[in-house]
Amino acid sequence: VALEVPLGRQWSLYGDYSFPWWTTPGNDRAWQILKWDLGARYWMNRHRDPMDVLSGHFLGLAISAGYYDIEPHHRGWQGEAAAAWLEYGYAWRLGKHKAWRLGIAAGAGWMGTDYRYYQADETDQHLIYSHTGRLNWVGPTKLELGLKYLFNHKSRKPGAR
């Protein structure tokens, strides 16, 4: 779930909350991630029509924090992570419906995590922690495909202020 708010004609702020919780049949693989993103975007187009906001090319800066538990085949990693990245993206207006956008974005930057490695029994009821560690990553940090809708945005008649 995300919310992006235009600030004037060329800036926007956004917040994103993600909580995927996936398990496979038989519960031998699980991915649980809880994270929040906060960012600012600079839209390169100078939009004259209010319905043109949040469309075109943009550059952004974002930060993220969250928790995770990733368990393939009854062994896994739990931890807390933080990240910061620069992003580039583009958003298209969709057809006649001026309020809908399709956007793509990619980002690169830093991610750091403190983790705990564990082995689980066959029922995943008992976790045996074996070691802890720290990981820092510099590289790709984001890939986004999003469908957006502009709420409470009305287009103006040509020439109106």
Mind explaining what this structure looks like?
With 161 residues, the chain is mostly beta strands. It has no helices and 8 strands. It has strands spanning 2-7, 11-18, 21-23, 29-43, 56-72, 75-94, 97-120, 127-149.
Please name the defining characteristics of this protein.
161 residues, mainly beta, eight-stranded antiparallel sheet, 0% helix, elongated
Quick structural summary:
The chain is built from no helices and eight strands. With 161 residues, it is an all-beta fold.
Task: Reconstruct the topology from this structure.
Layout (H helix, E strand, L loop, with lengths): L1 E6 L3 E8 L2 E3 L5 E15 L12 E17 L2 E20 L2 E24 L6 E23 L12
Antiparallel strand pairs: 1-2, 2-4, 3-4, 4-5, 5-6, 6-7, 7-8
How many beta strands in the DSSP annotation?
8
How many H/I helical runs?
0
Order of helices and strands: EEEEEEEE
Radius of gyration: 20 Å
Average pLDDT number: 86
> What fraction strand?
over 45%
First-to-last CA distance: 33 Å
Query: Regions with pLDDT < 50 over 5+ consecutive residues?
Result: 155-161
The computed structural class is mainly beta
The percentage helix is under 10%
Major β-sheet annotation: 8 strands, antiparallel
Which descriptor suits the 3D outline? elongated
